[in-house]
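User: Sequence in, structure out. Go.
Assistant: Echoing your sequence, followed by the structure tokens.
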Amino acid sequence: MELTPSGFEDAQLRSYAALFTACFPGASHLHETYLRWLYRENPAGTVVGFDAWESGRLAAHYVCVPASVQVGGAPRRALLSLNTATHPDFQGRGLFTRLAEATYARGTEAGYDLVFGVANANSTPGFVRKLGFHLVTPLDSWIGVGRLRGVDWTSVGEAGFARAWPAPELAWRLRNPASPVRSLALPGGSTGFLAATGKPGISAWAELPGDQAPEARGGAGFGARVFLGRIPGRARPPAAYTRIPDRLRPSPLNLIVRGLGSRGGDVAPDPSRLFFTFLDFDAF
């Protein structure tokens, strides 16, 4: 089995899309256009990952995408753990662990400080036990209407761990070809973000302090909104929102973090000082 660095050329993207089709027949969003946007067009950097090949066949694939984050108020270069797939013909050989360790070694050499991701209940133990990740916290899942009222946006600005969204990276994030995100100005100078969830009448919702996307505007829309993430210091849903019971969710989602090399240090954030929304990963 040969391991080679993942890439973003058109031929490589076609091979990845074919692998995803074989592994996840229902995941129609993992097409070449989406992969080109994710792997090649990200202003934070191109994809970091590894592929496993046997006799000319792509057996497995794992990538992380660069992301800007703030840890303890300081900027850090991070990788977001995302796409992984092993062809059914090659499962059970431990390929994911080999690809992941090769990816993190390459990320360390490239100067990245940490890798973070959102894992479901089934995959979290493997990340923690086999790959040295720290389980930070399950993400909150709320449903309601309107804004997230009562949030102390000062505390958000002072979060111990948060995704940073420089204007080029945010504009890129909103252009997701598989799930475009609309932004709208909110009273008080903050910005709201809406994305489709695939459920009729329900949108994903996030808010960021400040006028974060002046070039992209859209209507607020109607219907219920889902907030998925964490807000510093808030253990309960805000007014007009309620917690979604675990039994109604496909799987609890957990934020996981691992430091890379000597620059990583202790990057495990305090859950009470964490700011995280759907914008920060690939739920919607």
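User: And one key feature?
Assistant: The chain has a mean pLDDT of 91.
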